[in-house]
């Protein structure tokens, strides 16, 4: 596997609307997607573009959301994960597992329509890493 | 101010050497800078390139390091900050202060040789934001 693009930085927030206002009004973000629900993953998300990558705002979809626990510990929100692109998710998973890393679950379809998986933070110095098969037709 | 490139994601680590090995051996990072000291900022840093941005590994330079406290709470390391580029650091600081944000200290020269400042995480939903005047001559 070769380290691919940083697709996005995932930021947990108790309120996507308030976070959008912060990025727009304080930092001057201008390309802000419409928030949408990913009920299968228990989250509502919104992508904010920078010229070279994206910030993914993540809000719990319900109390069973995988990020509810994160927000309990960090009520204001905070950095949640980083997502790198890979050419082939199955090859990446096999490679990581062969090297002893703990891949969390099976690949599933992520926010950009291609398969994603998460790798346990213990394998990456406390950083939760998402791997995403490179989206096509996104223009970047 | 307009939201600029994500210059890097800052990752705190107790050991830059061990983190380099993780990014190289598990994720396939190939463009890895030589670690260097920034004693004025109390850190040792190393930049790892992705095709579109960088990961900045940050290790405490000494016990008085500003990231020593972070590592005490997160001994394995973890995501520490995100750094966005701005065209003019003084204008960005004035703009943020006019909008009520808490800029931490005066701009100082950062790891890429241009002025940087940090903004208090309370103003960005728990995310520590670094602003960096766009480096020139870096080829990206």
TrEMBL record, chains A, B:
EC number(s) given by UniProt: 5.1.99.1
Highest rank taxon of the organism: Bacteria
GO biological process: L-methylmalonyl-CoA metabolic process
Residue span(s) of domain VOC: 5-134
UniProt-listed PROSITE patterns: VOC
SUPFAM superfamilies associated with the record: Glyoxalase/Bleomycin resistance protein/Dihydroxybiphenyl dioxygenase (SSF54593)
GO terms for MF: metal ion binding; methylmalonyl-CoA epimerase activity
UniProt keyword list: Isomerase, Metal-binding
Record-stated family: Belongs to the methylmalonyl-CoA epimerase family.
Protein name: Methylmalonyl-CoA epimerase
Gene: mce
């Amino acid at each position: 596997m070769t380290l691919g693009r940083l697709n996005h930085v995932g930021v947990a927030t108790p309120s996507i609307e308030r976070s959008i206002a912060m990025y727009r009004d304080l930092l001057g973000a201008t390309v802000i997607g419409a928030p949408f629900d990913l009920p299968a993953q228990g989250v509502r998300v919104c992508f904010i573009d920078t010229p070279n990558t994206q910030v993914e705002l993540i809000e719990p979809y319900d109390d069973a959301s995988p990020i509810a626990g994160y927000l309990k510990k960090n009520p204001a929100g905070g950095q949640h994960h980083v997502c790198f692109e890979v050419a082939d998710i199955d090859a990446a998973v096999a490679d990581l597992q062969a090297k002893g890393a703990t891949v969390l679950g099976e690949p599933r379809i992520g926010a950009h329509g291609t398969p994603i998986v998460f790798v346990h933070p213990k394998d990456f110095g406390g950083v939760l890493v998402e791997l995403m098969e490179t989206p096509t037709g996104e223009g970047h």
